[in-house]
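Practice problem 4.
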């Protein structure tokens, strides 16, 4: 994944976005995103009016830049504003601005990756069927690659133990319901947590509708479907030993829509290096 030409670094009239202006728009975007993730009301029109006043830019130019911010945040596995779909023609100047803003706001970064509203829920989220991202992205620039390495989403999500526990609990219920919906209540009651996961190499022990064994690894993120994940050594060993039974349940956007797609055998292109 990556970007093409730095179109978003210039407004329609050719006026270049400077560092201070980009920092203002990125900072405002993160304020709105934090409110969206915590269920607090905000008025996007008011935010845009303020940005138009302080930057002397058109609403279209600001909206364009906000879409590019969504793309950069997608690269680092963070949620984005739903009304600003990613635009992949961002430039390195915007990458620098996102780096500065996230580095200056470690609390915001943590809350976006592990939203307090999610951690405070009494029950695990109910999962809906989703799909992997199919968006075509141009190769990343070296600067964008350094940003991804700095805020490595695969490592961040792997180390988020509470997020992982929420994901496993949600996947367990989802598997039980899947089998019940297919008329296999007898198998649904046998779905269990692996004991312990480090030994069995998976998080859940389940079955296909025909009764074939499934060894499920659950990978959870608050980011989108394109967020990379990483297999632990025990999971890699299980994948090699039982490829026909090995399945990854990729849970994404778990703080909002809570969706899941499956990767059978965990094909290499779905897993980060």
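Answer key:
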């Amino acid at each position: 994944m990556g970007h093409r030409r730095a179109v978003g670094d210039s407004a329609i009239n050719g006026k270049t976005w400077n560092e201070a202006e980009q920092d203002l728009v990125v900072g405002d975007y993160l304020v709105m995103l934090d409110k969206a993730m915590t269920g607090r009301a905000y008025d996007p029109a008011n935010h845009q009016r303020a940005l138009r006043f302080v930057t002397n830019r058109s609403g279209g130019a600001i909206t364009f830049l906000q879409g590019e911010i969504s793309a950069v945040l997608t690269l680092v596995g963070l949620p984005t504003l739903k009304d600003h779909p990613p635009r992949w023609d961002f430039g390195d100047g915007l990458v620098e601005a996102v780096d500065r803003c996230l580095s200056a706001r470690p609390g915001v970064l943590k809350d976006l990756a592990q939203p307090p509203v999610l951690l405070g829920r009494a029950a695990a989220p109910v999962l809906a069927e989703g799909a992997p991202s199919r968006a075509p992205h141009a190769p990343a620039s070296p600067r964008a690659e350094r940003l991804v390495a700095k805020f490595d989403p695969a490592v961040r999500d792997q180390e988020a133990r509470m997020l992982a526990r929420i994901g496993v609990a949600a996947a367990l219920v989802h598997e039980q319901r899947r089998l019940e919906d297919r008329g296999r209540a007898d198998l649904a009651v046998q779905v269990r947590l692996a004991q312990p996961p480090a030994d069995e190499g998976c998080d859940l022990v389940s079955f296909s509708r025909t009764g074939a064994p499934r060894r499920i690894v659950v990978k959870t993120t608050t980011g989108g479907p394109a967020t990379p994940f990483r297999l632990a050594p025990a999971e890699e060993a299980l994948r090699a030993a039982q490829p026909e039974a090995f399945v990854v349940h990729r849970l994404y956007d778990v703080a909002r829509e809570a969706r899941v797609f499956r990767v059978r055998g965990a094909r290499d292109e779905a897993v980060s290096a």
